[in-house]
Amino acid sequence: MNKRLFVLLILLMSLSLIGIIFVQGYWINNTVENNEEQFSFNAKQVLISVSNRIQYREFEEMFFPFQEILDSIDEPDNKTIRQLLNISIDNSNRSFGYTDGILNEDSKLFSSFINFNIDTVRLKNILNRNADNSIENNVNKQNSTSNLERIRALTDLQRMDYEVVIGEIASFIPIHRRVKKEELEYLLKNELEERDIEVDFEYAIYSNALATKVRSDDFSLDYPTTYAIPLFVDNEGASEYQLYVNFTGKKQYVLSTIKGMAILSIIFTLIIVVAYSSALSQLMQQRQISQIKTDFINNMTHELKTPIATINLALDAVKNPKISGDPEKVQRYMHMIREENKRMHAQVENVLRISQLEKNELNITKEKQELHDIIEDAVTHVSLIVEDRKGYINVHLGALKTTVLANDSHMTNVIVNVLDNAVKYSEKEPKIDIYTENVKNSIVLKIRDQGIGMSKVAQKKIFEKFFREHTGDLHNVKGHGLGLTYVRRIVDDHHGQIWVESERGKGSTFIIKLPLIS
Questions:
Q1: Which of 199, 319, 322, 343 lies in the 20 to 30 Å Cα band around 492?
Q2: Predicted TM-score of the model (pTM)
């Protein structure tokens, strides 16, 4: 795939994913805001309903005894009227006490009895209407309508007159006697349940910005979650009292309304992110593998072309009459052909070994071996190459216990591969030191060079199949990236460990740790 097209594809996929996440976030945020608005609307409706129910309950309770006074046939004295209109509430049944009596139609006389500043016009309207109906009510009292039916029979104008007069009378009663905490809490819960709202709340009634006795224990004014409604509104729309309700569980309730959809949305978004990340990772790996395979083919071609070219040259030389007549030169060229053939065979064997290791088909027979002997044997395989480049291999065999369970051939190949890498990645003459030491029940082999070293990234990938860290020209370091993969697999098969410590420009140290046997 073209690099520019590959980058464009990744960019478009990333932008699409970011767009999906942004849209999901916007949708969730928008839903939360809409639900908050809906909650605020419902909360206000709850407070309006509670306020109306409290005001209607007070009107209903005071209307009955007030009407009894107007319907009475005996003249009450000042004390009786005052006892009635003081609205002394019985805690046991919340009923109003009253006595029968007759009231003078003159509203001024009525007001003088109770010393209330009552709207005399509205009171006179009530008294006049009651006087018109008094004869009929007294003649057939048994068939009179109930107080509740009387309330329902009132016209809007008549009801307003009663509400104003009763409201002005009730205003002289302390708020904690007009509204009980239990009643207020019950009404709030009832209204919330009717709207399927499960939320914690605290409440309080304020009078002229001061808290009254009617309040819950943990109430506090928190304006984002507190709603207010006036209580006992008069005919001019004014009110001395404000009911405040703080919905302490508002945030949790709003979030709970979208919890299911939000969780599903997040899960699906995460699935998309994981799928995208996995696809992107696979795409990157495939691209990397493609590049690695290309490098592998190029390097293997180079590795095989060199011995083939050498063999062809040697064969051409042998055909030459001048050479064919010289047995010594013929022998020399034949030896060269044999060595190059071995070299090609070794390259092919390396690839086959890795394939067999991948399939777990490589049968490795292990026997008791002295690791120092294996090290010395491996050194002889590369000593000529090192000497040819004016370098050295110093061996420091410090381990006292060296017996391991190993395959002589494969373990020799392991050490040769590491030494070969040390030679390849040394820009100048190779300088290699080999150390051994005992650590508990193991023997540790360290092969240290003073080559070009490697990056931290390369150290993590050095044992991966086909991995080769580029050093400029693709072919300046020969190989196919399989040697250290083979090394790692053989060490693992021997129940050992291998790792590398390296720094750019300061060389590398390969460390092999193998278990000892007695």
A1: 343
A2: 0.48
